[in-house]
Design goal:
- The complex is a heterodimer.
- Chain A is mostly helical.
- Chain A has 13 helices and 2 strands; from the N terminus they run H-E-E-H-H-H-H-H-H-H-H-H-H-H-H.
- Chain A has a single domain, classed as MetI-like (MetI-like fold).
- Chain A has a two-stranded antiparallel sheet.
- In chain A, helix 3 packs across helix 7, helix 3 packs antiparallel against helix 10 and helix 7 packs antiparallel against helix 10.
- Chain A starts with a helix and ends with a helix.
- By secondary structure, chain B is mainly alpha-helical.
- Chain B has a single domain, classed as Orthogonal Bundle (MetI-like fold), CATH 1.10.3720.10.
- Helix content of chain B is 76%, strand content 0%.
- The chains are: A mainly alpha, B mainly alpha.
């Protein structure tokens, strides 16, 4: 048995070491940098330990960056706004995605496969290009404005870009498939007899939907909303291309802090706080998925 | 609501329209002969020709293809190992740990992933001198890490659907585990592995954020170049490039779907 388990570790160890090195340890590096101060050196931050050559002799890190973040309205607003946009975006995706998932779940086998494929297809196309396609729709001389002008509906172009509307459109276009897939698998499991029984007993279609379909599809609603919410919180491309300069989102703030201000310690603490925000929804998502499997 | 309630059809149709209209308009405008995106001046394929002579875009596309190929290949090797270990090894030290680490990259925000890997690479370089600078290698490592997580999920799912009794029968008949893996398990999960490779490749090919952090001079991937152009507004060349990518991806997805359908039809529990 000892030899067999040794051979098992030949399978387990290589990917385990890879993930430890390239996924786990990096977070400790980020934590370390977030406790340091910016410096005019390469790399541009100070050490958080003093060394005597062999072992650390003192701890030099501090929570200054975190205090700075929590006292500066720019960062607080970025976090609050990101959470708000991600929550509203999930809701919009749910409202648009539910009828689609319902239609797919009720379609016959061949139609179902085609309808599902049509949902998955855009998801495989680069999200950058899909967001770019929205610029072509919304910009002052884009498709919507030039069409409306041509038909004489408007005289001056509408301000569509750099608005909340544009950002939400970007979230829908990017993450709608992630909402539909778990909704579909929850709705697919629904027993059609239940709905039939309800209508035989005199329930209106609306009552049947409200009291049977909706509660039973709740696991899909929760999983889908989390799958949209989590990546939306840290989103960079959508606010950078579709949002205005005053539409703060934390992913964009981190990017600016790192690439434009070159303040690595502050960028690292922004990342640590973002993770702290997301740990709870992430755990929640894992539990929902496990419940759906088991 | 009835089976095909008109309201459901209407609302679902609206959803599909939202997904497809922007892409469709982009595709149509890529054939516009005018440089001005707003003015329709007749059909033309000249932007496709200009694309091929744009050295910067062609170089970036080549870099992205290389990065995608290698990261997806590393991704399926390690991802298959993870998926197999999680689905087939009953209990081992660190199973929960491996499970957690293998699924976390999927939900990790890209900005955090990119920043943390860049800081790691810089610390490693100052400690042990490797990797020397940022470039192709660092982007491949970063994308492989995300890719293997997705492959692990796909492979694990496929293996838990697969009837384990075939593998157990082979073991009872005295076959060794590596032999069983390569002659029975691997052929059956191959469609899942191929689908996983395509998924990992696509994720790598599409990624802007992680690559922007860990890439270096001379290793600008296609999304990095596209992003720098797109920031300045809509250009007909990017429309043409996007159209090509959309068509290639559509073909890829249809092939992957075919593989997935076929893998569902062979050797699942329901049919056994």
């Amino acid at each position: 048995m000892g030899f067999a388990s040794f051979k098992r570790y030949l399978v387990i160890m290589p990917p385990m070491l890879w993930l430890a090195l390239f996924f786990l340890i990096p977070f400790f590096v980020v934590l370390q940098v977030s406790l340091s101060d910016p410096a005019l050196s390469r790399p541009p931050y100070t050490a958080i330990f003093s060394w005597n050559g062999l072992w650390p002799t003192g701890f030099l890190g501090d929570l200054e960056n975190y205090e700075f973040l929590l006292s500066d309205s720019l960062y607080v607003n970025s976090y609050v706004n990101s959470l708000k946009i991600a929550a509203n975006g999930s809701l919009v995706c749910l409202l648009i995605g539910y009828p689609m998932a319902y239609l797919i779940a009720r379609a016959d086998a061949r139609m179902r496969n085609t309808l599902l494929l049509l949902v998955i297809l855009p998801f495989w196309t680069s999200s950058l290009l899909r967001v770019y396609a929205l610029i072509g729709m919304y910009s002052p001389n884009g498709f919507i404005n030039s069409s409306l002008t041509w038909f004489g509906v408007i005289d001056a172009p509408l301000q569509l870009m750099q608005t909340d509307f544009a950002v939400y459109s970007g979230i829908v276009l990017t993450y709608l498939p992630l909402m539909i897939l778990p909704l579909y698998s929850a709705l697919e499991k629904l027993d059609g007899d239940l709905m039939e029984a309800a209508s035989d007993l005199g329930a209106t279609p609306l009552a049947t939907f409200w009291r049977i379909t909706l509660p039973l599809s709740m696991p899909g609603i929760v999983a889908g909303s989390l799958l949209v919410f989590i990546p939306s919180v840290g989103e960079f491309v959508i606010p950078a291309l579709l949002g205005g300069p005053d539409q703060l989102m934390i992913g964009k703030t981190l990017w600016t802090e790192f690439f434009n201000n070159r303040d690595w310690p502050v960028a690292s603490s922004v990342a640590m706080i973002m993770l702290a925000f997301l740990v709870i929804p992430m755990m929640f998502l894992r539990n929902t998925q496990r419940a759906a499997e088991g | 609501m009835g089976k095909r309630h008109p309201l459901v059809l209407l609302l679902a149709g609206f959803g599909y329209a939202i997904l497809y209209i922007p892409i469709l308009i982009m595709v149509i405008y890529s054939f516009n002969s005018s440089k001005l995106v707003t003015v329709w001046a007749g059909w033309s394929t000249k932007w496709y020709g200009e694309l091929l002579t744009n050295g910067q875009l062609v170089d970036a596309a080549w870099i992205s293809l290389k990065v995608g190929f290698w990261s997806a290949t590393i991704g399926i090797i390690f991802g298959t190992m993870i998926g197999y270990a999680l689905a087939r090894f009953r209990k081992f030290k660190g199973k929960l740990f491996l499970n957690g680490m293998a699924t976390a990259p999927i939900v990790m925000p890209e900005v955090v992933m990119g920043l943390s890997l860049l800081l790691l690479f810089i610390s490693m370089e100052s400690l042990i001198g490797w990797p020397a600078g940022r470039g192709l290698l660092t982007v491949i490592i970063a994308h492989a890490t995300v890719g293997m997580a997705f492959v692990a999920v796909v492979v694990q799912g496929r293996l838990s659907d697969l009837d384990i009794s075939i593998e157990e029968a082979a073991m009872d008949l005295g076959a060794r585990q590596p032999y069983i893996f390569f002659t029975i398990t691997l052929p059956v999960i191959m469609p899942a592995i191929i689908a996983g490779w395509l998924l990992a490749f696509t994720l790598s090919f599409d990624d802007l954020v992680i690559a922007s952090f860990v890439s270096g001079p001379g290793a600008s991937t296609l999304p990095i170049v596209i992003f720098s152009k797109v920031r300045l507004g809509v250009t007909p060349e990017i429309n043409a490039l996007a159209t090509i990518i959309v068509v290639v991806v559509a073909i890829g997805v249809i092939i992957a779907n075919w593989f997935a359908l076929r893998s569902n039809q062979t050797g699942t529990k329901d049919e056994a």
